[in-house]
Write a structure and sequence with these properties.
mainly alpha, about 0% strand
Length: about 300
């Protein structure tokens, strides 16, 4: 318990303090939603491609437990379907918002929230299972939503235009390039690695700061049934499903199941927010779900640990 408290105080609390700084400066009028949108464009076109490339070019896929990863992805798909269906059928959200709310229910803040806690509990061995989950999330969920949103923007009648956009899309290019470097074993020049890692480090702080600005702008409507439904699915239903699949079905190595369950109990990640802001999808419920789940997951992560 003491280890989790220390991990919360550093690095979790300092990282998420950026969200509070964004809200405070928005309240004083220093930043507004227009500024947040500009910052988000930097994250989308520069910061996130660097982060995805850096991750996927270095992850060691040879030591992945693919059964555990498959079970975890199955739990994600189930809560994704529940989240998207609730948003669409119960709350009557638009299709694009419903899909991104579904993504919000299953896409976790792996790197800056869960990974430090997992390392305290399980040591450096926790890095490989979490890296596997991040890799599959990037390839399956993130890429699929980018493709879907691009097609929605251009329409099926203009497939050539949509295909052109996808081929030149910075996030998809980063994912493809990272996997290519990884699978071919290509050695990058140290200067290029420094540039990529330096740029990648800026993605999460700027995304969290702009999220804080948007949250303050949307704070006039604090009651949000959609956001609370997403939070319940993320921090309660998702860990329960993951536990059933990993312990009730597989009974796999605790070195893999422990970190995977911590990820399932983690808060909503910021990437659905980044995509929503980039593609003009309503962001209020997504932003609130990220904030509420971050607070709620402190309890669920402690219980899961």
């Amino acid at each position: 318990m003491q280890g989790l408290l220390q991990t919360f105080l550093n690095p979790v609390l300092p990282v998420f303090a950026l969200l509070g700084v964004g809200m405070a400066l928005a309240r004083r009028g220093v930043f507004d939603p227009g500024t947040a949108a500009a910052l988000n464009r930097y994250v989308f076109f520069i910061g996130m491609p660097a982060l995805l490339f850096s991750l996927l070019s270095k992850v060691d896929t040879r030591h992945f437990d693919w059964l555990v990863l498959a079970a975890y992805v199955a739990s994600e798909l189930l809560v994704y379907a529940l989240g998207a269906a609730l948003a669409r059928l119960l709350f009557h959200c638009g299709w694009r918002e419903s899909l991104l709310l579904g993504m919000t229910t299953c896409f976790v803040n792996h790197v800056f929230f869960v990974l430090p806690m997992a390392r305290v509990l399980y040591g450096e061995a926790a890095s490989t299972p979490i890296a596997g989950i991040i890799t599959l999330d990037s390839i399956l969920f993130f890429s699929a939503h980018v493709v879907g949103l691009e097609l929605a923007d251009h329409g099926l009648k203009s497939l050539r235009s949509a295909a052109t956009q996808l081929i030149s899309h910075p996030l998809l290019l980063a994912i493809g390039a990272g996997l290519a470097v990884n699978l071919t074993g290509l050695d990058l020049h140290p200067g290029l690695e420094t540039l990529v890692s330096f740029t990648a480090a800026s993605a999460a702080p700027i995304a969290l700061f702009s999220l804080g600005v948007i949250l303050w702008a949307e704070s006039a409507q604090p009651r949000d049934g959609v956001a609370w439904s997403v939070v319940a699915l993320k921090v309660l239903v998702h860990p329960a499903l993951a536990w059933l699949l990993l312990h009730g079905w597989l009974r796999s190595d605790p070195v893999w199941t422990g970190p995977a369950l911590l990820v399932a109990a983690g808060p909503c990640g910021a990437m659905p927010f980044v995509l929503a802001l980039r593609y003009g999808v309503p962001v209020a419920s997504i932003a609130r779900a990220i904030l509420y789940s971050t607070l709620a997951s402190l309890l669920t992560l402690t219980l899961m640990a």
